[in-house]
Amino acid sequence: METRLRSRRPRRLRREEIDPAEGVANLADLMLVFICGLMLSIIMYYHVSFGEPASGADSGLVESGYVYVDPETGKAYAVMPADNK
């Protein structure tokens, strides 16, 4: 029977296999968060509304007058029709 002497050197730790695709899931999550934040900031910047404008017989609103916008100042002027009685 043969006996082996133990070495006084510490055992080397096993190296775990490195999976290069492991970080791809984190990158995908990061991209989704970035894209959602970008879309939200664009929507807030341009004041985008997703509903249809309220007009016509279904909304209960009645058309009365006109709105004119001055392109130089950006001010809006509402002109109401005169009541003919």
How is the secondary structure organized here?
Elements: H1 24-46, E1 66-69, E2 76-79
Antiparallel strand pairs: 1-2
Quickly describe the structure.
The chain has one helix and two strands; from the N terminus they run H-E-E. It has one helix spanning 24-46, and strands spanning 66-69, 76-79. The radius of gyration is 35 Å and the shape is rod-shaped.
Write a structural description:
The protein is α+β, with helices and mostly antiparallel strands and 85 residues long. Helices cover 27% and strands 9% of the residues. It has a domain at 23-48. The protein has one helix and two strands. The protein is rod-shaped and about 115 Å long. The N and C termini lie far apart (125 Å). The mean pLDDT is 78.
Which overall shape is indicated by the principal axes computed on the Cα atoms?
rod-shaped
> How are the strands of the largest sheet arranged?
1-2
Cα(first) to Cα(last) distance is 125 Å
Mean pLDDT: 78
Instruction: Compute the number of strand runs.
Output: 2
What fraction of the residues are assigned to beta strands by DSSP? 5-15%
Features:
alpha+beta
